């Protein structure tokens, strides 16, 4: 492991870039990118447009999911030599559904200096425009593209709600998967759950469509979405009976069935993964002595 002195070593700076409007980059971000010895880009071709627009001539190299791990040793050596390295993504704040996390962890583990220049973030902007409770909130990146994996992921979140979680949840989504993703939300969380779809934020055709998930599903089945998309789902209503319903069904089933069979039966009733229901059945059995 390379050990980088925070006093003598270089600096790794995470620099937020615009999510659509090139004018949204800060003066401090431009200064940092100009002064850096190297800029790590998710895609150098995409970043070239931004850098050229602001006259930034710093050398660039790609840093993405497929090469990040192998690049880390060389980058740590550069920091050890006192170099200044900036990290940018194609748009928004680095690490937020973008590369850089493994590099940051490696620099921190080596005692190096990591800092950031804040700026645009699509998830936070969509949250503030959604009209839904701004805090607490969870940002969950992208959901799995396959329907079964996506539904399982969402079911875990619904189970967390039934255990007491109450937060606004945010995802990014590809336009060609938006309608089916919203349909999954309606199936797992209910068609009446309030939500918002934010599209093309900061760009010419910016749009935020708000309403119950079921209505949003109907709209995007008839109107294909385009551009960068962020989906915001409101928290469960105050009178959500999910956790009480789960326990009621389980207690009734456990009167005549084994824990395994009761979990299988109730999982289908409450629309949750069987292993989640099984874990709750074990808890109820232990509590009952």
Automatic annotation (TrEMBL):
Origin, by domain of life? Answer: Bacteria
Protein keywords: Cytoplasm, Methyltransferase, rRNA processing, S-adenosyl-L-methionine, Transferase
Location relative to the cell: Cytoplasm
User: What InterPro entries has UniProt attached to this entry?
Assistant: 4pyrrol_Mease, 4pyrrol_Methylase_sf, 4pyrrole_Mease_sub1, 4pyrrole_Mease_sub2, rRNA_ssu_MeTfrase_I, RsmI_HTH
| Gene3D superfamilies in alphabetical order | Cobalt-precorrin-4 Transmethylase, Domain 1 (3.40.1010.10), Methyltransferase, Cobalt-precorrin-4 Transmethylase, Domain 2 (3.30.950.10)
Predominant location of this chain? Answer: cytoplasm
- Catalysis performed (reactions): cytidine(1402) in 16S rRNA + S-adenosyl-L-methionine = 2'-O-methylcytidine(1402) in 16S rRNA + S-adenosyl-L-homocysteine + H(+)
In alphabetical order, the GO MF annotations are:
rRNA (cytosine-2'-O-)-methyltransferase activity
| Main EC class the enzyme belongs to | transferase
- Domain RsmI HTH: from-to ranges: 242-284
List cellular component terms (GO).
Answer: cytoplasm
| Pfam families, alphabetized | RsmI_C, TP_methylase
Q: Where is the Tetrapyrrole methylase domain?
A: 12-216
Q: Which family does it belong to?
A: Belongs to the methyltransferase superfamily. RsmI family.
| Protein name listed in UniProt | Ribosomal RNA small subunit methyltransferase I
Report the source organism. Answer: Novacetimonas cocois
Q: What is the lineage of its organism?
A: Bacteria, Pseudomonadati, Pseudomonadota, Alphaproteobacteria, Acetobacterales
Which gene specifies this protein's sequence?
rsmI
């Amino acid at each position: 492991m390379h050990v980088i002195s925070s006093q003598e070593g270089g600096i790794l700076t995470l620099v937020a870039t615009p999510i659509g409007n090139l004018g949204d980059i800060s003066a401090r971000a431009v200064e940092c990118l100009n002064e850096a010895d190297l800029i790590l880009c998710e895609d150098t071709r995409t970043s070239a447009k931004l850098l050229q627009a602001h006259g930034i001539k710093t050398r660039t190299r790609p840093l993405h999911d497929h090469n990040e791990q192998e690049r880390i040793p060389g980058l740590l050596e550069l920091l050890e030599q006192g170099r200044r390295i900036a990290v940018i993504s194609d748009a928004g704040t680095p690490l937020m559904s973008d590369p850089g996390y493994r590099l940051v962890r490696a620099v921190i583990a080596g005692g190096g200096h990591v800092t950031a220049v804040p700026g645009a973030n699509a998830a936070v902007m969509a949250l503030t425009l959604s009209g839904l409770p701004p805090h607490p909130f969870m940002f969950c990146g992208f959901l799995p593209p396959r329907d079964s994996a996506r539904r399982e992921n969402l079911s875990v979140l619904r189970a967390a709600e039934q255990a007491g979680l109450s937060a606004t949840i945010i995802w990014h989504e590809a336009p060609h998967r938006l309608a089916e993703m919203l349909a999954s939300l309606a199936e797992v969380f209910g068609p009446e759950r309030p939500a918002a779809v934010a599209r093309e934020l900061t760009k010419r055709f910016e749009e935020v469509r708000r309403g119950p998930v079921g209505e949003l599903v109907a709209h995007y089945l008839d109107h294909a979405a385009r551009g960068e998309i962020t989906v915001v789902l409101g928290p469960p209503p105050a009178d959500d009976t999910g956790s009480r319903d789960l326990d009621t069904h389980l207690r009734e089933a456990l009167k005549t069935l084994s824990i395994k069979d009761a979990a299988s039966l109730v999982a289908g009733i409450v629309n949750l993964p069987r292993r989640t229901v099984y874990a709750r059945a074990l808890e109820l059995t232990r509590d009952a002595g």
